[in-house]
C-alpha cells in the first residue's frame, strides 16, 4: 500500500516532521511520501483548512498532519473527533477513512510518552506549568492523564489560563487544577515536584528564561517543550543546578511516532526515531 501524507500549516518549510516520518517509514519498508503544504506558499488562509482537506483527499492523500495556525480550526471541519482531541478542541492529525475525516491529537500522546520515557520514577504530586497555549494544552492533558495530583497553570493571558483550567477540571474532576498570574507563581514554583515550560521563550528568535530556576526545590525536575534549540537556556540553568531535565525532543518525536502508527497501523521504533531526530 502507498501512503501519501502531508502537513498543513504556516511557516513550515523547515519542519522536521517530514524527515522523521520518511526515515522511519523507510526503515519499516513502507511506501511512504510526506509533503509540505505551506499556507503562505499556497496563497491560502488558515480558514481554508477544510477545503484543503477535501482537495488533499481528492488528490489521493491518506492523512494530513495539521499545525499552527490550524489546530483549533480543524476540529470544526472534520466528520469525527477522537475523544481526547474533542476534550482538547485541537487536533494535529486528520486521517481519511473511506469518505470520512477523523481527527486525532497526537501532541498530548507525544508528551505523555515523553514523561514515561524521559522522567521515569519522577514525582507528579505538584506540577507547575508556565504557558497555556497550543503546546500547553497538550502538556496539561498529558500531565493529568499521567496522574499529576495538583496542576498549577500560569500564563500572561488570563483568558487562556482560565479556559484551559476549566476544560481540564471538567475532564479530570478528581485532580486539582489551579491558576496563577505570572506575578504570583513564585510560591507554587518553590513547592513544585516539577515545572513544565510551554511558552516560546528560549527559542532562537525569543531568547531568555520564563521563570526563576533559583526558586526550585533541589529534587524538582524541569521540562521544556521548546525543541529549537533542544538545549535551552532554561534547561542549561536547571541542569547546572543539578535538576533532572527533559528537553522538547521526546514530545516532538512522540507526536510523529503516534501519527505514523495511527496512519499506517505499523509499529514504529520510537528509540530509532529519537536517535534519527537528534541528528537533524
Ligand atoms: P502559543 O502561542 O500557542 O502559546 C504560548 C503561550 O505562552 C501563550 O498562551 C502566551 O500567552 C504564553 N506566554 C508567553 N510568554 C509567557 C511568559 N513569560 N509567562 C507566561 N506565559 C507566557 O505557542 P505554542 O504553539 O504553545 O508553542 C510554544 C512553544 O512550544 C514553541 O517554542 C513551540 O515551538 C513549542 N512546541 C513544541 C512541541 C514539541 O513537540 N516539543 C510541540 C508544539 C509546540
Percent range of helical residues: 25-40%
Order of helices and strands: EHEHHEEHEEHEHEHEHEEHEHH
Q: Roughly how many Å is the radius of gyration?
A: 19 Å
How can the largest sheet be summarized?
6 strands, mixed
**Number of contiguous helices:** 11
The strand line-up of the biggest sheet is 2-1-3-5-6-4
The average pLDDT score comes to: 97
Specify the CATH homologous superfamily of the largest domain: Leucine Dehydrogenase, chain A, domain 1
The beta-strand count equals 12
CATH domain fold name of the largest domain = Rossmann fold
Provide keyphrases for this structure:
binds nicotinamide-adenine-dinucleotide, 280 residues, six-stranded parallel sheet, Rossmann fold, alpha/beta, 20% strand
Would you summarize the structure shown here?
The chain is an alpha/beta fold and 280 residues long.
Q: Please, could you describe this protein's structure?
A:
The protein has 280 residues and is of the alpha/beta class. The protein folds into 2 domains: 128 residues, Rossmann fold, CATH 3.40.50; 121 residues, NAD(P)-binding Rossmann-like Domain (Rossmann fold). 38% of the residues lie in helices and 20% in strands. The chain has 11 helices and 12 strands. The strands form 2 sheets. Strands 2-1-3-5-6-4 form a 6-stranded mixed β-sheet, sandwiched between helices. A 6-stranded parallel β-sheet has the order 9-8-7-10-11-12, sandwiched between helices. Strand 5 and strand 6 form a beta hairpin. It starts with a strand and ends with a helix. Nicotinamide-adenine-dinucleotide (NAD) binds next to helix 5, helix 6 and helix 10.
Amino acid at each position: 500500500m502507498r501512503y501519501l501524507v502531508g502537513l498543513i500549516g504556516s511557516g513550515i518549510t523547515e519542519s522536521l516532521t517530514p524527515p522523521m516520518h520518511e526515515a522511519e517509514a523507510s526503515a519499516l519498508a513502507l511506501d511512504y511520501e510526506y509533503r509540505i503544504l505551506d499556507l503562505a506558499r499556497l496563497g491560502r488562509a488558515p480558514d481554508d483548512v477544510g477545503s484543503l482537506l477535501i482537495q488533499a483527499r481528492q488528490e489521493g492523500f491518506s492523512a494530513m498532519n495539521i499545525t499552527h495556525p490550524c489546530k483549533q480550526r480543524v476540529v470544526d471541519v472534520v466528520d469525527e473527533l477522537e475523544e481526547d482531541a474533542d476534550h482538547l478542541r485541537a487536533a494535529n492529525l486528520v486521517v481519511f477513512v473511506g469518505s470520512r475525516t477523523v481527527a486525532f491529537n497526537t501532541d498530548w500522546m507525544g508528551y505523555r510518552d515523553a514523561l514515561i520515557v524521559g522522567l521515569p520514577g519522577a514525582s507528579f504530586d505538584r506540577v507547575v506549568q508556565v504557558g497555556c497555549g497550543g503546546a500547553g494544552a497538550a502538556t496539561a492533558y498529558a500531565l493529568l492523564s499521567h496522574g499529576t495530583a495538583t496542576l498549577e497553570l500560569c500564563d500572561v493571558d488570563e483568558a487562556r489560563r482560565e479556559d484551559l483550567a476549566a476544560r481540564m477540571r471538567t475532564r479530570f474532576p478528581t485532580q486539582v487544577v489551579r491558576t496563577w498570574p505570572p506575578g504570583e507563581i513564585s510560591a507554587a514554583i518553590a513547592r513544585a515536584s516539577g515545572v513544565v515550560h510551554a511558552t516560546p521563550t528560549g527559542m532562537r528568535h525569543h531568547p531568555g528564561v520564563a521563570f526563576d530556576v533559583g526558586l526550585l526545590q533541589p529534587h524538582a525536575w524541569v521540562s521544556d517543550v521548546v525543541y529549537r534549540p533542544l538545549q535551552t537556556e532554561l534547561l542549561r540553568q536547571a541542569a547546572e543546578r543539578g535538576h533532572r531535565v527533559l528537553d522538547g525532543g521526546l514530545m516532538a518525536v512522540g507526536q510523529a511516532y503516534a501519527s505514523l502508527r495511527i496512519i499506517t497501523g505499523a509499529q514504529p521504533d520510537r528509540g530509532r526515531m529519537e536517535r534519527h531526530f537528534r541528528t537533524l
